[in-house]
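Justification of resources, computational component.

The compute hours requested in this renewal are based largely on the per-chain cost of generating structure records like the one below. Each record pairs the submitted sequence with a full structure-token output. That output is archived, and it is also reused by downstream analysis tasks.
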Amino acid sequence: MRRLLCLAIILCLLQGNLGLETEQETETHVVTVDSTNLRFTPSTLTINEGDTLRFVWGGQALPHNSVEENGVFDSGDPERAVDYGHVFDYDSAGTYSFFCEPHEAVGMTGSVTVLDVEAPTDNGTDNQIGTSTGESESSTPDVRLGLALGLFVLLAAAMWRARIYD
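The structure output for this chain reads:
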């Protein structure tokens, strides 16, 4: 019987903690080069803050790069093979235009729209790529539900124990 009561207490404590963390996943969006038309593929895209914009190509006949017009990102000198990524921070919502330096005049341009999302709270790491967890205002109902469920289990276990010993 004591084991059941201990189990009920542990469940109560765990239920209260399960709702504290929310998970926000980030994505990587890949832009390649259509070398036959000297175009980025896709040339326009929409992503969320916290996501990574990745430029990848290899084996190109002509060297390319990707430069944001205001210097927000720059893949470096034009190359025939590139694998470059840029993470958009949680305060970078907006539209960003980019181009290939050697081929801008022939229309090798693109744009990315970064949507505003709520930043996860800092969990002690400085990792911007991947998944972050943290407490948010939207987790408050989950915490209350977890605590209520835990208290119900504890009360049910106590009542069951009292009934057995009567």
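Strands lie at 22-24, 28-34, 39-41, 44-48, 52-57, 67-68, 82-87, 94-99, 109-115, 132-134. The domain at 23-120 is CATH 2.60.40.420 (Immunoglobulin-like).
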